[in-house]
User: Fold this.
Amino acid sequence: MRAAVTWQVDDAFDVRDDAARRPAGPGEVAVRVRAAGVCQTDISLSHGAFGQSGPVVLGHEGAGEIIEIGSGVTGFDVGDRVLITWVPPCGRCYHCRRHETYICSNRKRSSEQGPAGLTVGGTEVQAGLGTATFAEETVVPVSGVIALPSDIPFEYAALLGCAVPTGYGAAVNSAQVRAGESVLVIGCGAVGLSALQGARIAGAADLVAVDPFESRRSLALSVGATHAVTPEDDPTSVLVGAPGFDVVIDAVARSSTIRSGWAAARRGGRLVVVGAGRADDTVEFSAQELFHDAKSLVGSYYGAADMQRDVPELVSLWRAGRFDLASMVDGVIDLEKINDVVSAQQSGTSLRTMLSI
Assistant:
């Protein structure tokens, strides 16, 4: 089978046709991946982010069908359509017992991931974020798959593995946007667009998007933003009678955008950081401004999503025409063109492209 491998940090993706997987073990399922999203996190991981080393098959947004079931697995059958999630909850740790499955204590970090059950050219490789959706087939724990209905296309469903619940959840779960509030979203990739849609669905009034690329600003307006501005503009200028935004969602997560977001939030407002920033990119706040401004600074990991709850909810919103997935899919391409997709995404010319594998 085919897989896109990164042999060492900073290497380009190497598409191979001599990959193989082991059988599904106890509590595991093997999935034939039908579509995978190219996420900025995969690009960062290929450069060694979060301690990821090589060789590794990346990809953590994927949807497909179960082709093999390991012993002890119940509730699924061969042929079932499923979404793969990169945070398979154990269901028993401190966080899972409190319905915080997105920060399950027993999920391994990227630097702790062992062999993926995959080999390429006879060499064992790791699975980025434990999923390896840039392979035609992958083996994951049964807790890492979510049942999908028959009516949602695989290329739409793949986005539900990370970008959509991360952005939507940042607005709905982490920021808890309320009807009539003003919301600013910094960064209009798939996560930012999902945050915009989550805020719109929650009833936001003024809904402002910030992005340097005109194509992404246009997409933001198409999914519900009331205004779209460049990073050089003052986003608060569009507000009437308010000194700042009730909620700011930063989907970029650089120290500069976090400080900009903080400045754009009103006193008593909320700043939610949902982008995966660098470990060495520090942000400074004085003790006085934290006290004086009375703002909330919230980190949003995986959109604080409970995937068993949020995925069916998102599918229902898509089915009702209230959540636009189509605008976030640029088209279906072949796996061999992954490096073209990566280059396009890094330049901002491609918002989100799916791999048909």
